Amino acid sequence: MPNEDLNALKPDEAQSDPGSVVLYGSALVDRLTYISTTFSSLIMSMGKAARDDRDVLVPLVEVKFEGPTGQDDAVSKTFFSELVPLENVAFVLEDISNDFTTICRHLSAVSAGPVKPDFMRLGETKRLLNEAKDNIEKCLADLEGIG
Q1: pTM recorded for the entire structure
Q2: 1 partner at 20 to 30 Å CA-CA among 61, 71, 80, 131?
Q3: Residues with Cβ within 8 Å of residue 63, at least 6 apart in sequence
Q4: What mean pLDDT comes out for the span 56-80?
């Protein structure tokens, strides 16, 4: 699924896009990147359950995260590319979402002050979280159908 950077710029860069946000201090900008594309694909294998010696399907997921190289936004760099068990993907989603609840709680507390997050980025974050919630509900329904 592609994701476009919402234009985090260095203060000295031209602001031709009114939707851009300028970060103060190059220390953060120099470390900033974004994941523009994720790829996940189901790969099936057969296995044997050790507990009862039954043949079982083993769902594996090929997962890849890509983003721009920094020098050229048209050239992608792979941040992560691995084959992992299905339940490990569920663990990563749960673990990141758990951390994200803490991040959002802290952001909410800090945002009680006079300076607020950019409304466009906050709106996009809420939209993506709602889509993630809907997608996880669909996954759960499909898995419940299996047994």
Answers
A1: 0.79
A2: 71
A3: 38, 39, 40, 80, 81, 82, 83, 84, 89
A4: 87
